[in-house]
Write a structure and sequence with these properties.
Blueprint: E1 19-22, H1 25-37, E2 45-46, E3 49-50, H2 51-72, E4 86-92, H3 98-114, E5 117-123, E6 133-139, E7 142-148, H4 167-178, H5 187-201, H6 207-220, E8 227-230, H7 231-235, H8 238-249, H9 251-268, E9 289-297, E10 303-311, E11 314-319, E12 323-329, H10 336-349, E13 354-357, H11 359-369, E14 373-376, H12 378-395, E15 402-407, H13 419-438, H14 440-443, H15 452-473, H16 478-498, H17 500-523, H18 535-538
Parallel strand pairs: 4-5, 4-14, 5-8, 14-15
Antiparallel strand pairs: 1-15, 2-3, 6-7, 9-10, 9-13, 10-11, 11-12
Amino acid sequence: MRVKSDPIRLTTPGTHGDTFIWPDLEAIKSDIHYNLTVWPEGNVEVWGEPLEQRRRRIRREILQRARHYTQKLNVPLLESRDDQALIVTGHQCQFYHCGVLFKYYLARHLARLSGGVVVNIIVDTDTAKNLSLSLPDVGSEGLELRHLSLGNFDSHIPVENQPLPSADELAGFREQLKAFFDSKPIGAGCRRLEKVLAASLHASEKLTDLFCGINHRLRLNLDLPCLELPVSVMSGTQAFTEFIADGLIRARQMHQCYNEALRVYRQKNKIRSMSRPVRDLSEGADRSIIEVPFWVMLPGGERRRLFLKRKDNTLYLLRDGSEVLAEMVLPSKDDTKAIRDIIVTTIMERKDFSIRARALTMTVFCRLFWGDFFVHGIGGAAYEQVSDEFIQRFYQIPAPAWCCGSATMWLGLGNYTPEAEIKAALRRFRHEQRDLYYNPGRTMRFDSDKEAGAMELLRRREEAIQENQRLRRSRGSSRQRREIFDLIHGLNESLADWSGPRQAALGSRIKLAQSQMDQARIAYNREYFFGLFPDDELSTLTV
């Protein structure tokens, strides 16, 4: 298994059709073998139960939930056995791009290698942001970006608590989509999306189902089957609630290990910001109240941070560090199983709130307790490096291996000047602008007969520069040096009047280049929804 002590360098693929896989495929094969046959090394126990025994019990419940949810979507159910290798990947509920899609190609490849199945985690516990569909359009000013929204969503509410769009909102979205049916090259993709939207809607009770159904059906066209499991469904299992309880029993240690893992990650990657990749868990001024890495979902649909306070034999769960959600009287003797049972029963029976996984706890639970290998994109890979450190510190075992994959695909909207070329031209133009002001003798050319005044200004400026250099060598007085500086500055201003036409021409070229930059960013945007691309082009992403 590879050693992961050094920072991992992750690179977004730069041009059309490029893919990125970390580590290389041979290393990934070795890592999967390690996860399946060696990890965890030795007879590891977690809270008095062998980890392998706990994993078998948990994966049965997880697979049952995943099969049930996938059937609910009214899509073909992928055949699976409890003893198969589980290759896990996932993403938020949104119209995601080809870089994300490539994870599913990589996961399918690894599932075939290991005789396993792919389980897709739908992160519906994130707030409802970036849910619109971005489409390129040709307007009067050239390429323009249109944003089609499925509905008017509350961006403060997690997707799992968002209802389906209203009939009017859906009708409006579909009408806007139909306006692109004849657009090149996205017309066919828009038609396909409109069709799978209608099919998915019939099997959807809320927004999570709709997005999951759309993306699942489009991936099936690409022979990318999987079992679907929203984080909200996973977080509601008995197994995950036991995971929460185990964490709350050792809340102080969990809090410390989480923050230490973040500190190590920032140190390795030379990151100064305390909010990257996520901020530290907080605690009260007297340290009696600490934040734990879970979300609490409230009846109104809002998501809040979960805090814990323990006083004598009473355990308090709090939202945002103040409002008490639940209090549990624990046994006077230190009986871990009895304490865990009380916490699990309380959380499972309460109807006025629910507890959900956050980014780190979600992947820790998947990797440690039921999944066999996790496939990340570039964004999730940063979190996973923190998770590796957390697992080592909190559970005192080496973290299982994982991998990362991404790709870049462009829609082929025309032969626009590449962004890199435009940036280089802008640098040249701006350098020339600066030279016209600060080094006019190097950049300005005059006809000595017609522009004698400018030639005289240049001569006086050169004399002033030589005098300035003489004063610096002889350490002239500050008054003398200030006077000569002001003279040079004044001559520059006077020469600027003569360079006005050239400055204006450069300004026009810069404005044109900036407009070309806007067009290039639309033409070569790698984040267009994968469903807009022809299936035969997407098939080139096969690992």
